[in-house]
Design brief:
The complex is a heterodimer.
Chain A: E1 4-9, E2 13-20, E3 23-26, E4 36-37, E5 39-43, E6 46-49, H1 51-59, E7 64-66, E8 89-93, E9 96-101, E10 104-106, H2 108-127, E11 133-138, H3 144-156, E12 160-166, H4 167-179, E13 183-190, E14 195-203, E15 206-215, H5 220-239, H6 247-263, E16 269-275, E17 282-288, H7 289-301, H8 304-313, E18 323-327, H9 334-344, H10 357-369, E19 377-379, E20 386-390, E21 394-399, E22 407-413, E23 422-429, E24 439-447, E25 458-464, E26 470-476, E27 482-483, E28 488-489, H11 495-507, H12 509-539, H13 545-563, H14 567-580, H15 582-605
Parallel strand pairs in A: 1-11, 11-12, 13-18, 15-19
Antiparallel strand pairs in A: 1-2, 2-3, 2-4, 5-6, 5-7, 8-9, 9-10, 13-14, 14-15, 16-17, 20-21, 20-23, 22-25, 23-24, 24-28, 25-26, 26-27
Helix pairs in contact in A: 2-3, 4-10, 5-6, 5-7, 12-13, 12-14, 12-15, 13-14
Chain B: E1 3-5, E2 19-20, E3 27-28, H1 49-52, H2 63-77, H3 87-108, H4 110-122, H5 137-152, H6 159-198, H7 203-238
Antiparallel strand pairs in B: 2-3
Helix pairs in contact in B: 2-3, 4-7, 5-6, 6-7
The chains are: A alpha+beta, B mainly alpha.
């Protein structure tokens, strides 16, 4: 059985986890950090993802993409009004946002695929095997297009996405597994860009989602923007500088706002510091927790409506909830915890690491799919009602929100006029009465043999699978023949385009690999240089003058190789340095052994 | 576009005859898994929701037992457990799960359950009322007039409190009526279950059966009508 990993593809950070003999574990990177910032930098030396890419946000803002999750499954019109902070240029093609970097335009799934690949490499390096299958999490309130876009991203990254699973449900799996909880729980998940609330019943290993709700455009990013707006305003009034015209400074403001917000979860006041453009000095401003809270209270309150709606849909009151679980970095804010406490009338649980719990749950689900875990089962729901357009621009609901998935329904279609050869069907998702107020998912044309009006009978099956993704099939009831349907997504990549992107992704893989190897080699070289420096300090006096200068020479050689762009040269210089320091290492080892032995003797005597 | 809901629930005959395993062709008698090759079997599309969940056609159902059965069958059919199986088995798992979920959703709710049973027993779907029920006709026509008048009234006018009080008392009366309908329904449910339990095949029993079904249908459709009117009332009063 090939291994399946669990991936939390977040707005701000992403993680990969796997099941290690019944316990889910997050896979750390080289530096030991478990989170990969969801940032992609397109540098002259190639593609960089994660921590190193984050540095490019300020150095190279137009070529560094962050928060791409906000654009998944969206058209340009959907994101107007939040573009102020995004330094990169957006366009639209075929209903899909494109991010322009230099001459090239990337779709959000392509950028997400770069992050997924980084996680794939990380897992492969850690586990020492090829990783080709994954479970990827999405916000519970993601619609069909956003889910499909996530699946596309997986394919482009060379991953078979065996399941798309909802983030709060994933969290409940990890939580339930660890705590052996039974009863009704509410998972409140406020991440970097999205908010979800899910109400679940946990009983004998079954995790049944009773209701879910949320807002896919509400999260930590919005809090950061409020703080950043304040700083920008102050810089304008005190220094007469409009930071909005400096993309690099806008990113610095955003990052500083984020840090200040994070600090204010533990402290009551903090100082935000900014370098002003054109060497005009430094700007500092004190921000208090009270100020942060009054600036963001309306955002936090926006999460309460969905909570109440989910309770109502589940047929429950706050008293019926046994435990409230917090997920997502933004739930570290004291005011968020307070509001959740007030609403549910009990203190929320926050002992799990809110950053890791979703990835851990995805690993558990991956293990269920691979047949490792057999006693747990997740019964999830579809977050939004699915319907079709009927006459007068009204949506007719076919599958109601909060229906357990897989869910299917059949509709019979016929013709109005003699000889009519087709019926156009427009699929929608949402809770509103009118078509224009709901999300258009896709359109397709049902082919019908020319017959008198009302005679043809075509049965169309709408099936929402366990991923929450819609599948449509049709059957001519008279002939029994099934009909293949070409569904054209309203906000998604066409199949051919995904195919092309997979191809491109492989083509660039070699280039990416070179860039990656260079980064890895220079990081390791850096670590080696530091270690050698330390060794010289400790044991330099124990070796000869000639040997010391040989080591110094090797270090200088490695230093200059590191500044170049060939990882092979770096590796060669590293091997040389290793050889020159071989004796020193032995000497140090002997000394420390001797010391250890002496200490031992000493302790035996006393 | 013209479409109408396909009525999958209006069939009376159950397909419970012996049939063959799709995979090894050995004989099976309604089991969910073939005894010989252990392959999952497609639940017949003709199967009614009561049979699917293993419950007799009664209107009082033990919710805990229903949930336990739903969980048990979910463990048997859910696609999560078919990831390593053949494409054919995966397709069966998906269809079975979808059917199971619909069956559980329908039987879990007492009203949906009764409406579904009516479909099964009496053949046709519940008629949706567009005109008030006969015994409420005049009362409701009058209420509609007051509602229209109230909506047209200036909120600061002298007549407003009077109209409002009138609507409030109508609301109370209708809510009482809703409650009495619920009680009546509960009684009919018990009568139905008792009749089924006796299992008599007499003419009397048939007459009794038809009476219960007719009354249930009457109340279920009146209930929807009254509920809509009450909702209308509540929102109209609340909006001011």
């Amino acid at each position: 059985m090939t291994r399946i990993v669990g991936i939390d593809l977040g707005t701000t950070n992403s993680l990969v986890a796997y099941m290690d003999q019944g316990t889910p574990r997050v896979i750390p990177g080289r530096t030991g950090r478990s989170m990969v910032p969801s940032v992609v930098a397109m540098t002259d030396n190639g593609l960089i993802v994660g921590d190193s890419a984050k540095e490019h946000l300020i150095r190279n803002p137009e070529r560094t993409i962050y928060s791409v999750k906000r654009f998944m499954g969206k058209g340009l019109a959907d994101v107007q009004g939040e573009l102020a902070y995004f330094p990169y240029h957006l366009t639209e093609q075929g209903g899909v946002i494109r991010i322009k970097v230099g001459e090239k335009a990337y779709s959000p799934p392509q950028i997400s695929a770069m992050i997924l690949k980084e996680l794939k490499y990380r897992a492969e390096a850690h586990l020492g095997e090829n990783i080709t299958k994954a479970v990827i999490t999405v916000p519970a309130y993601f619609n069909d297009s956003q889910r499909q876009a996530t699946k596309d991203a997986g394919m482009i990254a060379g991953l078979e996405v065996l399941r798309i699973i909802n983030e709060p449900t994933a969290a409940s799996l990890a939580y339930g597994l660890q705590k052996r909880t039974q009863g009704t729980i509410a998972v409140y998940d406020l991440g970097g860009g999205t908010f979800d609330i899910s109400i679940l019943k946990l009983k004998n290993g079954i995790f049944e989602v009773l209701a879910t709700n949320g807002d896919t455009h509400l999260g930590g990013d919005d809090f950061d923007h409020r703080v950043a707006d304040l700083l920008i305003k102050d810089v304008r009034t005190q220094h007469g500088i409009d930071l909005a015209s400096y993309p690099d400074h806008m990113q610095a403001v955003r990052l500083e706002a984020e840090q200040a917000k994070i600090r204010l979860s533990d402290e009551f006041k903090t100082t935000a510091t900014l370098e002003l453009p054109d060497g005009k000095g430094r700007f500092t401003r004190e921000v208090t927790r009270d100020q942060l809270e009054s600036m963001t209270t309306d955002l936090i309150d926006r999460t309460l409506g969905p909570c109440r709606q989910a309770l109502k849909d589940a047929g429950l009151t706050p008293d019926n909830i046994d435990e409230v679980v917090l997920v997502g970095g933004s739930t570290r804010m004291p005011l968020v915890r307070q509001r959740v406490h007030d609403l549910f009338g009990k203190p929320p649980h926050c002992e799990l690491n809110p950053d890791e719990v979703v990835a851990l749950g995805a690993a558990v689900q991956a293990d269920i799919l691979s047949g490792g875990t057999t006693d747990l089962l997740l019964l999830d729901v579809t977050p939004l009602s699915l319907g079709i357009e009927t006459m007068g621009g009204v949506m007719s609901s076919l599958i109601r929100r909060n229906t357990t998935i897989p869910a299917s329904t059949k509709e019979m279609f016929t013709t109005y006029v003699d000889g009519q050869t087709g019926v156009d069907i427009h699929i929608l998702q949402g809770e509103r009465e009118l078509v224009k107020d709901n999300r258009s998912l896709a359109r397709f044309r049902l082919k019908i043999p020319p017959l008198p009006a009302g005679v043809p009978r075509i049965e169309v099956t709408f099936l929402i699978d366990a991923n929450g993704i819609l599948n449509v099939s049709a059957r001519d009831v008279r002939t029994g023949e099934t009909q293949s349907i070409a569904v054209k997504p309203s906000y998604g990549l066409a199949d051919e385009e995904v195919e092309r992107m997979i191809g491109e992704s492989f083509k660039f893989a070699a280039e990416d690999l070179r860039a990656r190897q260079l980064i890895e080699a220079s990081t390791e070289a850096e670590a080696m240089l530091r270690a050698t420096e330390k060794a010289l300090k400790q044991g330099g006096h124990l070796i000869g003058e000639q040997e010391r200068s040989a080591i110094r020479a090797s270090m200088v050689a490695l230093e200059s190789a590191k500044a170049g762009s060939d990882h092979k040269v770096i590796r060669a210089r590293m091997t040389e340095l290793e050889q020159t320091t071989h004796h020193l290492a032995e000497v140090l080892m002997d000394t420390s052994l001797k010391e250890a032995l002496e200490n031992k003797k000493l302790s035996e005597i006393t | 576009m013209d479409h109408h809901t396909h009525n999958t629930t209006g069939r009376r005959e159950l397909q419970m005859a012996r049939s063959m395993c799709w995979h090894c062709q050995s004989e099976i008698a309604g089991e969910y898994f073939c005894e010989r090759c252990v392959k999952v079997q497609p639940v017949s599309k003709e199967l009614d929701y009561f049979t699917c969940l293993g419950f007799p056609r009664r209107l009082t159902i033990d919710q805990n037992a229903l949930e336990a059965k739903f969980y048990e069958l979910s463990r048997a059919f859910h696609p999560d457990f078919y990831q390593n199986k053949s494409v054919a088995e995966q397709a069966i798992s998906l269809d079975n799960s979808a059917l199971l979920n619909t069956a559980y959703r329908t039987l879990r709710d007492p009203i949906q359950r009764a409406e579904y049973l009516l479909d099964l027993e009496a053949g046709a779907a519940k008629e949706i009322r567009t005109s008030p029920p006969a015994d409420l006709f005049e009362e409701i026509i009058e209420l509609q007039e007051i509602l229209d008048e109230y909506r047209a009234t200036d909120r600061t006018s002298e007549t407003e409190p009077k109209l409002r009080a009138k609507l409030q008392s109508e609301r109370v009366a209708l809510e009482h009526r809703q409650q009495s309908m619920e009680t009546q329904l509960q009684q009919l449910f018990s009568q139905w279950d008792a009749l089924q339990d006796r299992g008599e095949a007499t003419v009397q029993a048939r007459v009794e059966r038809d009476r219960i079904l007719k009354q249930m249908r009457e109340i279920l459709s009146n209930r929807t009508y009254v509920r809509n009117i009450v909702n209308d009332l509540v929102t109209t009063i609340a909006h001011t």
